């Protein structure tokens, strides 16, 4: 996953405690802290003594702009101690976490300040392992992971690659962006969206003429991408059907790359059917041991720009221009209106409409709302500042009860606003 640029104020007023241990991957914690700070969070760091062999406390102080907690700085006249920092923090993120730290955490051992801080912190903790493959795969370490997952820890799984020790296998610290997103999700989750399945479609469909030519449109898929991300950060279980796969989204967003309108329709029906089955939650030691099936009403955000027409006689291979002649009459057939035709019983369906004609735009959106039996339409009137491919958008959220204008913002910010309006469409709340 590529490095991301977080939205400013995404984590405004959030307090994050980052624990760092003695791993060669510790330098990546500096990038993680930078992302947290850029997103508006307040960050403090607690270090094990082994961690100080790799990076000095001064370096972490410079990046976080806060005093670092370690053996030489613990202070009981302020909150710079293993009890006070936990009371201050909204989230505790341990990255990187060595095999030694993982095994001690699972057994309640607290023989350094970082472990003491973790033992005193009674809320969800994010842990990102970094270890030699054999140490990571050791049955003792694997048993520790199982215990930690039952003890209010959320594990950001490591990567498989060639490690610093020249061993190839699983154990490398997860991408910084994966740890960042997992942390944001924990801080921003919304009970309404949590454990709710949502299907999002995006991008312009591709209708093949032959093996090298096709009909499409200018849709970038950015609105769908940001909607999927906003939903993930709010806690939803997201399936993204897209013509443009995005490698900078969290891995937990299930992406299905599609091409044609026919392919979109096929996968969309399957995804909606699956969404109606609900989400099976995993137990923790704090819950009943039996998994619970949660069935909240699914949502569909149909942001894909589906081609109205497709070639009637698509060809295998490449059509040669000397066979086509000086003029080429391409015969098109009208595609089925997917959003209108799919069964929307038991789901909340929101369509997207891009318009250039400001005078007719709202009228057309209201007609779409009724003719396709939708719960809402996100009307996007295209102008220079929010044209195709732009990172900005403004939306008129159209329902049977009226129109709510969402002013021009970056597409992630406006996605969050769309979700707030979309919540009002479920008469049963979070049931």
Describe this structure in words.
The protein is α/β, with parallel strands linked by helices and 431 residues long. It has two domains: 15-187, Rossmann fold; 190-423, CoaB-like (Rossmann fold, 3-Layer(aba) Sandwich). The protein contains 14 helices and 21 strands. An eight-stranded mixed β-sheet has the order 12-11-8-15-18-19-20-21, with helices on both faces. A five-stranded parallel β-sheet has the order 2-1-3-4-5, sandwiched between helices. Helix 1 packs parallel to helix 2 (57-64) and helix 4 packs across helix 7.
Terminus-to-terminus distance: 35 Å
Structural class: alpha/beta
Oligomer: single chain
CATH architecture of the largest domain: 3-Layer(aba) Sandwich
Widest sheet: strand ordering? 12-11-8-15-18-19-20-21
| Average pLDDT level | 92
Strand proportion: 15-25%
Largest sheet: 8 strands, mixed
Briefly note the CATH topology name of the largest domain.
Rossmann fold
| pLDDT < 50 stretches | none
**Tally of individual helices:** 14
Query: How many distinct domains?
Result: 2
Classified in CATH, the superfamily of the largest domain is CoaB-like
Number of strands: 21
Keywords:
about 425 residues, alpha/beta, Rossmann fold, 2 domains, eight-stranded mixed beta sheet, five-stranded parallel beta sheet, 14 helices, 21 strands, about 25% strand
A few lines on this structure:
The chain has 431 residues and is of the alpha/beta class. Helix content is 31%, strand content 24%. The chain folds into two domains: 15-187, Rossmann fold (3-Layer(aba) Sandwich), CATH 3.40.50; 190-423, Rossmann fold (3-Layer(aba) Sandwich), CATH 3.40.50.10300.
